[in-house]
Amino acid sequence: MNTEHSDVLTVEVTDGIALVTVNRPEVRNAINATVLQALTGTLAELAEDDDVQVLVFTGAGDKAFVAGADINELAVRTPKDGLKATMQGVYEKVEQFPKPTIAAVNGYAFGGGHELALACDIRIAATNAQFALPETGLGIMPAAGGTQRLAKLVGLGRATEIVLTGRRVTAQDALAMGLVTQVVEQDQLLDTARETAQAIMAKGPLAIQLAKTVIRHGFDVDHQTGILLERLAQSVLYSSAEKAEGTTAFLEKRTPDFRTAAQKDVSK
Asked: What top-level class of enzyme does the UniProt entry assign (predicted)?
């Protein structure tokens, strides 16, 4: 299934995987207001689509994932726009999306593109990927979650250096610092992202959703609160048809049918 959400964003749904592509290759897929509006609508639609289990974000062409915000729009933004924080709000929706998200990063991931990747659950980079937060060179700062998410991923000191200098980080350096989980050849990027998505989809969907929720929210609280979240989520799973199917299938040495089990949970 192929869908043209708008002239700046394409969505292709195949076998449970939604490939969301920022489609402005003539400007290296720079994010503008139209892209953000399209992303907002797309996220709302895909969240309600039961045929979609995993989202993969990428950029059109072979030069850029997303090379940042559209500078023409950025140049005329006001303090009111800063407080409105539209891009930050959209990326919050990406981070809080109920289904797993993967960033397949090809080429430049600068500014808002880097921050989009940071908002995803998993980041896979092509060998030509480069990451940067160059905003301080424009007299502003990363403000779509970059200062917060990067520090949590790579550590406070390294994140501070990357933000203050605006330096570019290669794919291999990103792998070494834990910014991405894999680096693959450019022609293998989408296949690798799909393989990762398929590995996720082979697991229990409710277990995946709750594990994602506990990891995300548990990271921001004290240890005892995080442990409590973990315990409560597990208690929900222990009562699910999904858990019954998973354990029964293991004992019977067969592949679990989590999709059918998930429907039983929904119908309870």
From this structure: lyase
